[in-house]
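Long-time lurker. I teach an intro course on protein structure, and each term I like to show students one example going from raw sequence to a predicted 3D structure in token notation. This year I'd like something fresh instead of my usual example. Would anyone be willing to generate the tokens for the chain below so I can use it in lecture? Attribution to the forum is fine with me.
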Amino acid sequence: MEVSIFLAKFWGWFFVTFFFLLIIYPKRIKQFFEFIKDDKFMIILSVLAIIIGLLNIVAHNLWVKDWRIIITLCGYFSLIKGISQFAFPRFAWDWMEKVDFKWFQFLLFLLLIVGIVLLNQAYQWVPF
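-- Reply from a regular --
Happy to contribute to a lecture. Here you go:
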């Protein structure tokens, strides 16, 4: 359970911080989409996603019917995202190009909700 709490804090703070940084500095979203077009950036980003995903899966591969499944899914999503970006960079770039700003904002809001849920489970602010 200690690993679950640690990873809930990690992913929760990551999602909440990422949300607020992109809301405060929306020009970073456009810059991110421009950087994705660069192969060097895509390789670095994909390798980082693979490392984070593998570490998460090795440390926390729990398929249970409670909040801890979110952590496991974050690890698998990160691993799959990293592998797909590394193996098929053009496909990943085309997909990112199709996502418009409104969908990106919706995804950011969804990450905020997931981050708050994980932080609540880690710190027990509102027990449920």
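Some talking points for your students: The chain has one domain: 2-123. Residues 2-24 form the longest helix (23 residues).
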